[in-house]
Amino acid sequence: MIVEFGHFALILALLVAVAQVVVPAIGAHLKDERMMRVADPAAVSQLFLIAIAFCALTHAYVTSDFSVLNVAENSHSTKPLIYKLAGVWGNHEGSMLLWVLILALFGAAVALFGNNLPLTLKARVLSVQASIAVAFLLFSLLTSNPFTRLDPAPPDGRGLNPILQDPALAFHPPFLYMGYVGFSIAFSFAIAALIEGRIDAAWARWVRPWTLAAWMFLTIGIAMGSWWAYYELGWGGWWFWDPVENASFMPWLAGTALLHSALVMEKREALKIWTVLLAILTFSLSLMGTFIVRSGVLTSVHSFAVDPARGVFILAILILFTGGGLALFALRSKDMQAGGLFQPISREGSLVLNNLLLVTGAATVLVGTLYPMALEGLTGEKISVGPPFFNMTFGPLMIPLLVALPIGPMLAWKRGDFAGAMQRLAFAFGAALVALVAVFAAEYRGPWLAPFGVALGVYVMAGAVVEWANRVKFGSAKSDEIIRRARNLPRSAYGTFFAHFGIGMLVVGIVATSAYREEHIQAMKPGDQITVNGYNVTFVGLEQARGPNYVEDIADFNVKRGGETVARLTPSKRLYDAPPQTTTESGILAAWRGDLYLVIGDAQPNGGYAVRAYFNPLVRFIWLGALIMFIGGGISLSDRRLRVGAPSRSRQPVAVPAE
Amino acid sequence: MVFWILVAGLVAAVTLAITRPLMRPSSRATDSAGPDIAVYKDQLKEIDSDEARGTLGAAEAESARAEIARRILRVSQDHPKAGSHARDPERNRFVVPVSIATAIALPIASLGLYLTYGAPGMPAQPLSERLAEASNANKPNDLVAKVEERLRDHPEDGTGWDVIAPVYYAMGRYADAATAYQNAIRLIGESPKRLQGFANARIHIENGVVPEDARKALERIIVLAPDSSIEPRIWLALAKEQDGRVSDAAADYRKLIAEAPADAPWRKVIEERLANIGKGIGSPPAGDGNQGAGSNAGTAPSSATPAANPEAAAIMAMNPEERQAFIARMVDSLAARLKSDGNDAAGWVKLIRAYEILGRRDDAIKALTDARANLKGNQDGLAEVEHLARQLGLGS
């Protein structure tokens, strides 16, 4: 019964979404408050109904109800509970349900917390948001219904792909989707503004928290995915430039650009048209990511033909929203007035540069992702573009971006003082120089460009510190004055500090681990030793063990450093019961200076095992940097100013947040 | 019944929630400049604090203030009088029809769609309930759990392993079954049944390919019980065929058929296999025997020279179509194996080379792409494949 109730709730949610598209839109057109206010309860009801559906499907997974086709195809009775839960979105139908759930979550959040918005704008935003929901609910119900039943139920399910049975992978889709789908709000705001024909500095401020939230979740979602790839795929890499990763990276680049251009718009009312266009493009890239991952184009062009309904449906959604958005943009953007003027050397100018580079970067990734697919679709020829392409195109684009990154915040609005900014950045240049010399001294044999990369990262980190120090007058004011200033600094300034600092760390981590990685592949018998970057690793032996739904060969390694045992690592190879597939579990010894990373391979004919040992210097900086960026986003989001503008008709302020 | 009550409740609650704003008498201002002005006033305050903090010069602050003041002015002009845009709500003809339409359409359309796509009345069938129903006979899962529990405490209990092994096998847990049989054999000795069970489980894991350890077990059965060893002999013959020792396999098949009683159920299967592979053996080599593999021998130095071993001789002995079909079959089975286990550089090299020899260049390129994807982490293997790709000129 619960399953059927969930199915019914999903259908009702579709109809509520239809009402949410139509009624507030008419209301906004006629300036009728009653009709506009329908949007709020509709958005909340929609969330409530989709949540019921989602809980019903989860219940079916937890109780292993194999009379639900989706459960039978993707779950198994012996699977541990957390993977039964994660299994809900570990498949196509369930993940689409999660997609619409998060879409509804954002819609309801606007309905509940958007009291600071003008009524017509809010009604239009929610109406556009609901139109996206209608499209995806229809897609879900018509082509990939998670509640399709099976009678009689099979004795057991087919199981979740073992490679997905891992905590980081299990829980990164919700974050990733929060990011993807969060940009739908920016899109809805853009479309609403175009319909309304009015767009100004206040609009930029209203959009900012939503963009920021989406950006935060996308950042952490991508980082979790990369972390998972690092320790689960078993070769020590952390980014593969494969289309699934690119699908999430493109909206991230465009979203980062959007965050920055919205800043210019909010302060100076400049870049209005560009910002609106970016908002449309960012969400279009999210949709395209969904299309690439979900339609089956990715695994092969041929599977696209196996189930054309799905692929064509998502393609239609993509065309409708991207095309519709851009058409509306073309129609209305010329009515918009240009905003404030500025000199090339100014805060605005630096942000324009940032936008140009980020968008070009996104375009590069887009070409690298789509070209091989298009080629295969047209000619059947398979090519792999791979990391060399991206390293040669995307990498160089990011260098000027990083060089300019600390300079931008040093420049004043309208007209900046470049020489002054350089002077104030002297400390950052000094820090970079020290890093450069230190890295050259330590790794004189390495690739000669790498020390410059590390120095660039250090420069970005130091630049973030300098900016903060500058704002609190560190060095020129007295200590109590500094503390007072540090306290009074708006939270968004701290957000900027953390986000930029995190980027610097990320760069240091990427360069160090790419350039100075140590790699050994060796057949080892019990008792054999190998030395990896100062670690003395002894292969003790191998034994079999049984997990909840797999058998594994666990290798035992004794790791010594300076004669003392520092760790015992146990990389293993698992063979899952259902479906019978093998996965590798790496053994990792994490430390600040880098990770020791061991993988056990196949048995060799002579009784030994193929062992791969890596040392990945500073690799933790990559995810730590992303985490710091996420935290920076959170701090910025908590800034009081993002909530300004609540109309006076709201009730008594409940609690004033601590400033 | 409960279901329909819940559905009715849900529809009623949602419909009410959505139409409620429409029911309210309302004539308040719909669109005021309030929210905009609140933002701009806050921006003014920010400028004050920036100026106080010294991050903004007096002149810049002044021009920024003027800019914001212009924005406030413009917004106020857009909304000269709060509420003047709003129509008289009583005159809005749409509100009543929209309310009614919503209140009617939501229940009817949702029920209609549900009755079309849903399965009303179909009960949930959670595993626990279904197991409880099936428990009148016995509960295999409980039984398994009990034996597993015991084996955890007494892993040296060979009889326990012997009992649970066929159960695992029946449950489809082949890896466990293989381990259990192995333990039972180690602890309480070999028996044809255990050896056969072990071999079956291993063959299942390998998707029908007879692996080395299974082959050894099957050979042991023939030693232990030479009289009742039809099944192991069939598997061993199959293993030979899989190894490419076609003529040996064919001889074994013939022998099996000769000894088989006329009504043996497996007889037909063996005959078919034999028909597939054995037809051409014994016929003289065709004149163009060197055309296929031979002309490419230069690029395939590792493949043994034809006729140096019996299976190659057997292949050479076939007529061209048969040989093509035979090779294609071998290649397909290799491709299938690599699909399930891609981390085998030697296998990929073999496959790519085979496609090239067969003139299936598109497939060779595709296999090369697959190999690259599958060998991502395997540097040596990747190098080997890339070397071959250069050799064969298969693009990058």
From TrEMBL, chain A:
One GO term of the biological process aspect: cytochrome complex assembly
One Gene Ontology molecular-function label: heme binding
Cytochrome c-type biogenesis protein CcmF C-terminal domain span: 315-640
Coiled coil: none
Protein keywords: Cell inner membrane, Cell membrane, Cytochrome c-type biogenesis, Membrane, Transmembrane, Transmembrane helix
Compartment annotation: Cell inner membrane
Pfam family, one: Cytochrom_C_asm
Regions that span the bilayer: 6-30, 42-62, 96-113, 125-142, 175-195, 207-229, 249-266, 273-292, 312-331, 352-374, 394-413, 425-442, 448-469, 493-516, 618-637
Domain Cytochrome c assembly protein as annotated: residue spans: 89-295
GO cellular component, one term: plasma membrane
Record's keyword annotation contains Phosphoprotein: no
InterPro entries: CcmF_C, Cyt_c_assembly, Cyt_c_biogenesis, Cyt_c_biogenesis_CcmF
Membrane topology: Multi-pass membrane protein
Function: Required for the biogenesis of c-type cytochromes. Possible subunit of a heme lyase.
Family named by the database record: Belongs to the CcmF/CycK/Ccl1/NrfE/CcsA family.
PANTHER family documented for this protein: CYTOCHROME C ASSEMBLY PROTEIN-RELATED, CYTOCHROME C-TYPE BIOGENESIS PROTEIN CCMF
Name assigned to this protein: Cytochrome c-type biogenesis protein CcmF
Organism: Hyphomicrobium facile
TrEMBL record, chain B:
Coiled coil: none
GO cellular component: cell envelope; plasma membrane
Major localization class: other
An example Gene Ontology biological process: cytochrome complex assembly
SMART domains associated with the record: TPR
Organism superkingdom: Bacteria
Biased composition, class Low complexity, residue ranges: 293-308
Subcellular compartments: Cell envelope
NCBIfam families for the chain: cytochro_ccmI
Name the record gives this protein: Cytochrome c-type biogenesis protein CcmH
Organism, as annotated: Hyphomicrobium facile
